[in-house]
Amino acid sequence: MEEGTHSTHLRSVLDKKGRKLTMLNLCGIDSLGNKRFKLKGFLSEAKRQGKTMLISVGGNRSNHLHALAHIGKEINMSTIGVVRGEEIATPTLDDCKAKGMVLHFVTRNEFIERHSSDFTASWLERYPDAFFIPEGGSGFLGTLGVANMLSGIDLSIYNRVVLPVGSGGTYMGLLDLADVKLWGYPMVRDTSLKERMQDFLPKVNSSDIQLDYAAAGRGFAKLRPEDLEFKDYFLKEKNVLLDKTYNLKLARHLFQDESWSGHWLWINTGGLQADRE
User: Fold this and answer.
1) What is the extent of the structural domain holding 48?
2) Fewest C-beta atoms under 10 Å: which of 17, 70, 217, 276?
3) Model pTM?
4) Do the Cβ atoms of 51 and 129 come closer than 8 Å?
């Protein structure tokens, strides 16, 4: 993936009534979307420490685990995935196993503790040669490669830069670059999210993190019939397939919300692989 050529993946998807929305389609740059960028800092640190394995957590349709397995095979590092819930087969997990990832399934109660130091320590005790990567590739190390997403893009022409938010690492990695223009749209109404995001970059004031929950709906990938209708419309009219978890709900909100004006840049972070049945 070449850096500095991302502007070639910009396209206008809305232009009317004083409102213009330009989309940066990260799937056009790399099938892994924002995940390759977020993993860059972790991979560098793992190599610096001489680790030979990478371990992380996610659900059974996790874009993060899918990308980690893919990149691990690319760079010849073993990967371990700790998966929420009972063992089932999904296209995502099938791909992970095909790329050599070893999967461990844990109960939802166990998975709740994934942000704790005890959880991390228990898995590193089991795999002492592994480097632990937090869920979603978020954290300070996850912010380091994110700014490369906007290489070659003139941000001065936009009134606002917007993106969907899961764990928040992509947002925090772009915060200094996009400054006050950056707004994140969480897909879950999690009131503790901003606090966890601030932990990635403690120097950032909480007031600098702009989150809007208007596009969250009922949560991750929980869609209404009108969401799916918009998905079909966007594919037919714009020739862009939107993932169900993140960008579909954000795009629908941006198109139907008449309260904003100006020229906005929307970062389509990808995630289509999780939609396979």
Assistant:
1) 35-137
2) 17
3) 0.90
4) yes
